[in-house]
Amino acid sequence: MNPLIPTVFSADPSAHVWPGDDRLWIYASHDCPDTNTHDTMCSYHVFSSPDLVNWTDYGIALHLEDVSWASSHMWAIDCVLWKGLYYLVFCAIEKGTNKFRTGLATSKTPQGPFKDAGYIQGVEQGQDPALFVDDDGSPFLFWGYGKKCFGARLADDLRSAIPGTEVELSEQLKWVYEGPWVHKYRGKYYLSYPGLFEGQWPERMYYAIADVPLGPYRYMGEYIPVFPGHSGTNHGSIAEYKNRWYAFHHSAWMSGLSCCRNLMCDYLEYNPDGTIRPIVPSKEGVVAGDAKHGPSRVTLLLGAEQGAGACGRLVGTSVATERAGYSGNGYVRGFDKPYYGVKVMVQQAVTARHRLKIRYVAPDGDQANKLIVNDIQIDDPGSPDPGRYDKAVRFPMASGWTELDAGIVTLNRGDNYLRLYAGTGGIEVDYFKLEPVC
């Protein structure tokens, strides 16, 4: 149901279905709770779902702290699977120049975390980027800035725009303001974008159609109008999943604040002539496949390797890949000395209780370690000392990857830190899973 992801403030959703994967993936920007400005946006999240009702939030996929060339404003993003790697395409203001650049970051897995790879050359003021790969494998970049929209073909390594291919599409796109997205339907190219009707806020969603990716485009009209609970901005994507089309966008339904937005999704339908039927956002929201309508259920799945970045930290430990069966980009080992461990960040829109599970191996036998969440006491009715905020966690012997139920924890509105460190050591950790407690 809408809001689509009620656990974290997010906006600008880019939706994808990757080859060989039955899930739908969303790449989104992140709004800090209680902010009154978009200047505070500094991280990205990745979500996936098999049915658009049950979701996994993989936490911070990339943070400003881990982008060496950027100083501020991590706004809209996209992602593409290209030659075996996932490329996060994002925008941020460059240090020293005050220009928006279109950044690249890479990961071997769709959820990240992603590693900064610099920015795309030949793109000036590259705000709100979106990548489109045509059926013949040709990559195109679209972006908006200053009430204008641009497109260009990219080089085969995605690192630069091919000289001479850049086009400005602004005059073809009535009311255009920012945030282009291109998808293909029945051989035609659809460019959707937020625009300002007669130059006035709030934004509405419009679209245009072309015969080739870089146009010329023919303006077709509005497909998401102004609606109750609108956030002022809107931005989104259009994707097909399990034989049905969906429009992803955002609103202020959760917070009522224009800078604390939430993801939305509504069914998208075409008329026989290929035009898009206008959408009225509904609270019922959407489902996919045989799923039934109901409130979204979001599980947090934080790879322990996020401690190497994404606002986390490794102390004495390291990321390894030798042991088979890990779930993300690696696992953490080296819990063999006092206070050696891992810390990961968890972001939340509302304070809520979660059941914490830790996937681990302990090949050398029963091991004890310590767990801290935000330096507050973990719910443990049997604890002899209710004043303590750490908890001894005993990991039974496990020669293969095993999930340990560590009990109930409370995550606060905003940024949270989960820390696991060595008591007697001897474990390796794959991920931390936080399931909602009703």
Give structural notes.
By secondary structure, this protein is mainly β. It has two domains: about 290 residues, Glycosyl hydrolase domain, family 43 (Tachylectin-2, Chain A); about 140 residues, Sandwich (Jelly Rolls), CATH 2.60.120.260. Helix content is about 0%, strand content about 50%. The strands form seven sheets. Strands 1-2-3-4-21-31-26-29 form an eight-stranded mixed beta sheet, with no helix packed on it. Strands 5, 6, 7, 8 and 9 form a five-stranded antiparallel beta sheet that branches. β8 and β9 form a beta hairpin. About 50% of the residues are buried. About 0% of the residues have low confidence.
Key descriptive features of the protein:
438 residues, mainly beta, Tachylectin-2, Chain A, Jelly Rolls, 8-stranded mixed beta sheet, 0% helix
Can you describe this structure in just a few lines?
This protein has strands at residues 10-16, 24-30, 43-49, 54-63, 70-72, 77-82, 85-94, 100-107, 115-119, 127-133, 139-145, 148-153, 167-168, 181-185, 188-195, 204-210, 217-224, 237-241, 244-251, 262-267, 297-303, 313-315, 318-320, 331-333, 341-348, 352-362, 367-373, 390-395, 398-411, 414-422, 428-436. The protein is mainly β and 438 residues long. Residues 381-387 have low confidence and may be disordered.
